Amino acid sequence: MSGQYGRKTLPGKQTVQCYIGLGSNMGDSRATIAEALERLSELPGVVVEAVAPLYRTAPVGYADQDYFLNTVARVNTTLTPRQLLAGLQQIENDLGRVRVIRWGPRTIDLDILLYGQQTINEPDLQVPHPRMGQRAFVMVPLADLNPEIAVDGERARVLARRLAGEQEITRLD
Description:
By secondary structure, the chain is an alpha+beta fold. The chain has helices at about 30-40, 80-95, 135-145, 155-165, and strands at about 15-25, 45-50, 55, 70-75, 110-115, 120, 125, 150, 155, 170.
């Protein structure tokens, strides 16, 4: 996805590079993801550096639903993981996200995939995001942005190539 991201700077502050997963399968998913990216770029303390292409992907976990559009954004942030999570959840709420069925249909889903090198294991926040290394809809766009980043002890490009052969995923952009 292209956009006017990365123009804002965070002068004089320590930043952390993060990766955010975005997905949607309700309504105009392309427009919703674009709006979510715009709102993400407007969060104080967040600069969106790059966004991977959009992918059309089969649902995982709960199969009785429409296909998803997915992408990954690379951001720099001065926010703590909790502050970033709160910002992402506010964007989801503003864009009509309703949590009814686990892994079910959604207008928008925003997940912290990686927060620098940190590992966080709390009931409502797990980083690296659980199961990301098993999902093509995360690994393929992540590999577009950083093919050499390690996930589950393997390079993103290796995981992406293997998962793309096992799971249905089609690049749209």
